[in-house]
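Quick board copy: two proteins, each given as sequence then tokens.
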Amino acid sequence: SMRMQRLFRDLDIQFEAEQFRTLENQAQRRARMEYLAVTMRERCAAQHGSRVKVCGTDGMVREGYLEAIGQGWIQLSTGRENILIPESSILWWECENQAAEVKIDVQARAYRFSMSDACYALMMAQEPARVSCASPVNTMFEGVIARVGADFIEMALSPCEPYFAYSNALTYKEQGVRIIPTSRICAIVTVN
């Protein structure tokens, strides 16, 4: 009968819609499960070359282009400064490129060396640097990294010429060598 055909057609449409919703729900669930496996390092690597904003444990918000990623650190470039930030000192970060592919090969975009190795490279280059440390007040030291230990750096303190113009934080203008645990470093800034 015509009535039964309409009933079966309605039921078929409902069944088809339910199957579509089930497939849609499965796809959403799969996407959620895949995203649960994404690490912050992978999420960050997806932003390589993009503008990011990073807040460190020193309370400073730094903005720049994500230039490099290493084992436990990132490097931002502002055009005027290069900023090396340990991942352990990141409170939060934001990115402009929300649509970036998240599941990428981090190894293809990341350096294999650690924060200590990056400090060693700065020491070898005798690069004047400003080191910001986590403390109740924003503490910065200016000078050159003189030596690098397993979990500390030794910094030969001296006011660095490039920073006089815009140094606005509490900066110790002392001479001598300061030993700084790498676990307390929030950022190392060098001038281009």
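And the next:
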Amino acid sequence: YRGQVVFRGSTYQSEANFYNSDYKGQADFCNSVYRCQANFSCSSYQGEADFYGSIYRDQAIFRGSTYEGWANFSRSFYQGEADFNRSFYQGEADFHNSTYGNSAIFSRSTYNKRVNFSNSTYSGWTDFTDSTYPDWADFSSSTYGGQVKFTGSAYQGDVNFSGSIYQGQADFCHSVYRGQVVFRGSTYQSEAN
């Protein structure tokens, strides 16, 4: 796709296959409903990638994708597994105010600019392992219902975990923190290390 692509407000009943796609301009998938598996894996977004306010009733696959502009996944609802594994974000990435009803995988990814995961609810297993954050990262005011792992990651800028609730095991081991790290006001209902 060479120019702007607008799928805003669409509903997908049976198949949503956008994998291996190359978007040169803005890609607008805002406020869409996916009643089936949504596959956006191995895609490249050179402009803004906007998935704001979308609902995913089945598995949502974004793994192995590259985002050169702003990537907006905020205020979205994922009923099935959300897979953002091995993705690369050159611009800012926004996942705040989202709900994950199943497992959420963000591991082995690079976020070169600011990334916001705040005010979100993660009901299942959540994986942020082996990721790189050269800039500011915000995980604050979130609820983690299952096990969450931040292990083996590198945080070059400030990172905020404050005001979060960890109902399952929370694992922050074997990570490198070079900026300010804030855990203030968090609640750990299970093992934390």
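Board note added afterward: The CA atoms of residues 8 and 29 lie 5 Å apart.
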